[in-house]
Amino acid sequence: MAGFDEIVYEIVSEIPEGKVASYGQIAAMAGKPRAARMIGNILHRNPDPVNVPCHRVVNRDGRLAPAFAFGGAGVQAKKLAAEGVAVSPDGFVDMAVFGWQEF
After folding, report:
1. Inter-axis angle of helices 4-13 and 36-44, to 10 degrees?
2. Catalytic residue list contains 54
3. pTM score above 0.85
4. Which backbone phi and psi does 93 adopt, to 5 degrees?
5. Can you tell me the distance from the alpha carbon of 1 to that of 5, in angstroms, rounded to the nearest whole number?
6. Could you tell me the CA-to-CA distances from 31 to 18, 36, 61 in Å, in that order?
7. pLDDT exceeding 70 applies to what percent of the chain?
8. Which of 54, 1, 2 is nearest to 26 (CA)?
């Protein structure tokens, strides 16, 4: 049986290019709906950011991570924009447009 971190990485790996998911959504999909903060910590330790696209995870309001683990919010915004996700100047993604609705 996979550990919780591995389950989280597997779920995040399924977020398609051009979409984002919230920390809470990932927590619910992983079976721990009240563990959004834990999801952030797990993604901060992501050992494989090339294959586990943690830049596609934002808060429930669509706000980018202010201290994105792999280079800051500017890097997260650039990665999302390169995938076609519009990021507002103040660092938000429209979840109604770009949210991943898989659960």
Report:
1. 80
2. yes
3. yes
4. -110, 140
5. 12
6. 25, 11, 21
7. 92
8. 54
Catalytic residue among 29, 52, 54, 95: 54
- Is 101 exposed, middle or buried, given 0-12, 13-18 or 19+ CB atoms closer than 10 A? exposed
- Residue 17, judged by CB atoms within 10 A of its CB (0-12, 13-18, 19+), counts as exposed
DSSP character string of the chain: ---HHHHHHHHHHTSPTT-BEEHHHHHHHTT-TT-HHHHHHHHHT-S-TTTS-GGGEE-TT-BPPTT-TTT-HHHHHHHHHHTT--B-TTSBB-HHHHB----
pLDDT tens-digit profile of 33-59?
A: 999 999 999 999 999 988 999 999 999
Give the position of tokens 């202010």.
Answer: 66
Longest dimension (CA), the chain: 42
For the chain, what percent of residues have pLDDT higher than 90?
A: 80
